[in-house]
From TrEMBL, chains A, B:
PANTHER family: CHROMOSOME 23, WHOLE GENOME SHOTGUN SEQUENCE (PTHR38110), THIOESTERASE DOMAIN-CONTAINING PROTEIN (PTHR38110:SF1). It holds the Pfam family 4HBT_3. Residues 38-124 form the Acyl-CoA thioesterase-like N-terminal HotDog domain. This is Thioesterase family protein. It comes from Streptomyces thermoalcalitolerans.
Amino acid sequence: MSEAVTTQAAGATIGDSEFDRDTAVTERAPGVYDTELSAGWTIINAVNGGYLLAVLGRALAHALPHPDPFTISAHYLTASRPGPAVVRTEVARTGRTLSTGQASLFQYDEDGREVERIRVLATYGDLDALPDDVRTAAKPPAIPPMEQCFGPQDGPAPVPGSSAITDRLMLKLDPATLGWALGSPSGKGEMRAWFGLADGRDHDPLSLLLAVDALPPTAFELGVKGWVPTVELTVHVRCRPAPGPLRVSTTTRNFAGGFLEEDAEVWDSADRLVAQSRQLARVKLG
Amino acid sequence: MSEAVTTQAAGATIGDSEFDRDTAVTERAPGVYDTELSAGWTIINAVNGGYLLAVLGRALAHALPHPDPFTISAHYLTASRPGPAVVRTEVARTGRTLSTGQASLFQYDEDGREVERIRVLATYGDLDALPDDVRTAAKPPAIPPMEQCFGPQDGPAPVPGSSAITDRLMLKLDPATLGWALGSPSGKGEMRAWFGLADGRDHDPLSLLLAVDALPPTAFELGVKGWVPTVELTVHVRCRPAPGPLRVSTTTRNFAGGFLEEDAEVWDSADRLVAQSRQLARVKLG
């Protein structure tokens, strides 16, 4: 993995990076947090759902007695926009090894009234307190070396529709899952990529919440051209990721009735399956 | 499929069956529902998590303007017991095609105080209003005909630990995933079964919430002997199931750090993938 690691830019660290600054929350009152949604994590005009989940995840990490999201379920209610927002948290239960809480992100309408954007239920624990037994049966995705993969920066728009978020990500897609960008989708509903943050920040549980929702929709490889907004996204974080880039693999197996599921697996540089997610998304044909 | 269908007992119907009576809720005040958790859906002394989810799902179907759970995420806080319970619901957002709500199930401690058992976020819609396009890439599980599969009723305890719930289910396990019951688990983390209700009631979206959590834990096929309590369970219901028994397949790919995920797929007699679920469970070795 050392080759791959050295291709990342150096500099930013966990706690001192664009991602940390753009997901920062400030407690205004007990359990109530002010935040500013950055325009830097948008695709077209939509704020990325994984970035939003990381903001909520950070507020819950402060509100709950345990530091890490073990499982976090988000239902997306209305479309978020860059700008001020408030996160209201509530503790449901605190236990010795796990605690459960709830959080909602609100923005403001023209009359200054709060509009709820996302509601989240999450159970937190301490990843560092887990036993280190690993009996993972899944295998890391087969993906070519990073220098044989392609991102938005490579050449004249092999990945169309680039947006602000592409400047903040190190995203290198497996050419085998890039057919959609060249007009010939594979029909397979699979996407694979190397994933990092452009400023070289390593990963932590919060950036894993971003990683699961940062690839182009698998629906593109099914020939869908349109918008695939997330209805619900649940992420399991299973291990603190090792330094270095991640490999993310996404699949869709059930595209029917105008909806589809999308599963993501996130593998770290030590070949650990560090996060799994599933979302239900709606297919809005363009 | 006609052979399989005719092996089910006849009589009960959707709306008039044990499952319907045992998941019934009575509105006491706007959005607040009384219910009685039945001892009939317990395994050892634990109330089945899918049955509990169906009770919450029924309350939300009443509280929300849409009838069917499209995606429902449950976080399990404390262990439920048979007996009285109250479900408190809250509407988060209502839209034209989807609405989102929240529900909590409470029971009472020795002093009569409410103790929260489960908290749920769910987005509901109308399955009958969906377009009928199906581009499902997944294939139904390969499972032998029902008469070659085994349930708790077959012979001298091929499936140990039978409990009240086994009398209410028609559960026939694929012999290839029954090694654990014979002392030689496959090591594969897979379980497959035919699934129905013992009184012959056909399936609806609420009984699919039961179906995803009714098989023995896949962990048994990994050689785990112990308790595998659910931390969080999310179910996507994708289609109203056709009459007749279901095929349920469950898999575990990431058993590590004392936790595992378990994915379920539920197929109906018309070969439609009608529900998908994923849960995070904790492994408590016996």
